[in-house]
């Protein structure tokens, strides 16, 4: 978290100097569960008290683009079913243009809790805190009006609250960019990354090389990004891993209040790279496809993932709709966590611009494990009422039910929950990340 602290200091200085938008918030969450352990028999109820405080920042300027959401939460389990204590969340990214069009500095940080083992229920004792950051310069050498050479260096770290997976990352990149127009850029790219683990006995260090072609179209209402190339990963003991890299992202702003998009990809990832990819871009817009990641068993193993997602978002004065469907295929090199996931979620809100907002939401996911015979389905449905007492103070009451069925009866459960929250936010920029 020391890297994030440095960013907070920089953001505070920049906000005072350039007038970026800064917001903060505090809140209380009280949640009741009738099956906190998510077990098939003999469920135990629990009341969870949570105090939350956080800060958000946004800046889009000639010298700096930045996004930050940082939050601290303290949870108290009334019946002591799980250990009380703090939880942290951070989503931070920054591009500092030291010399415009010549030299810039990039910083990305993500801190969150991820599932330790996806084959068992998602409970507090199955979560691990992870912090991943990456930082370094980009140098731009312009060759005329349309050609640019870009060289980048990155240093990063991945830290885990348990296990022996902490590692350092050293990356170098080179790119030849051709500006076909003000909105369209083609490029040839090389990226090399060395991953070194603190515990080299239990984990395999690796050297990754990516070569790919990119087409990047950025218009006012349309964004299109296509990567096509190859990946080679040399591991100290496990040998080579080769595969194709393909990423297609399309986002369309349909109107002032609605957007849609698709994401299709096929690539090698590891736990740290997947986590870092979920950071919000400092130049993101409402039409950009939200990031997702695959979580599962904590391991240093590589996995090859194929995924496809599509979403639609509409925010009107009376109705709001957000829906997403997805498919993921995850194939680890060694770890027995291979699986396919498919599903979707939907959220329907009534009177989103009024003092009282009613929201219906639901989700469904089907998980088929390929390493052993098991198929799981999880469904969730709920209703939420949000009352805005004024521009800063809001009260939320929510009820939801989760069903988890499985071909293995030992992994089935039903969990009913009721949530009451009181939140003060200095501006709409700050919204809690509590899930």
Any descriptors?
435 residues, mainly beta, 2 helices
Furnish the topology, listing elements before pairings.
Elements lengths: L1 H17 L2 E13 L12 E15 L3 E14 L7 E15 L3 E13 L11 E17 L3 E14 L6 E13 L4 E14 L8 E13 L3 E14 L3 E17 L2 E12 L1 H6 L26 E13 L3 E14 L6 E12 L5 E14 L4 E15 L4 E14 L6 E13 L10
Antiparallel strand pairs: 1-2, 1-20, 2-3, 3-4, 4-5, 5-6, 6-7, 7-8, 8-9, 9-10, 10-11, 11-12, 12-13, 13-14, 14-15, 15-16, 16-17, 17-18, 18-19, 19-20
Please give a structural write-up.
It is a single chain. With 435 residues, this protein is mostly beta strands. The protein has helices spanning 2-18, 271-276, and strands at residues 21-33, 46-60, 64-77, 85-99, 103-115, 127-143, 147-160, 167-179, 184-197, 206-218, 222-235, 239-255, 258-269, 303-315, 319-332, 339-350, 356-369, 374-388, 393-406, 413-425. The protein has a 20-stranded antiparallel barrel. The protein starts with a helix and ends in a 10-residue tail after the last strand.
Helix % is under 10%
> For the terminal residues, how far apart are their CA atoms?
21 Å
The whole-number mean of residue pLDDT values reads: 90
Taking all Cα atoms into account, the compactness measure Rg is 22 Å
As residue ranges, the low-confidence spans are 286-290
From the spread of the alpha carbons, the general shape counts as globular
Order of helices and strands: HEEEEEEEEEEEEEHEEEEEEE
Beta-strand percentage? over 45%
Q: Characterize the largest beta sheet: strand count, sense, and whether it forms a barrel.
A: 20 strands, antiparallel, barrel
Instruction: Please provide the count of β strands.
Output: 20
Q: What is the SS-derived class?
A: mainly beta
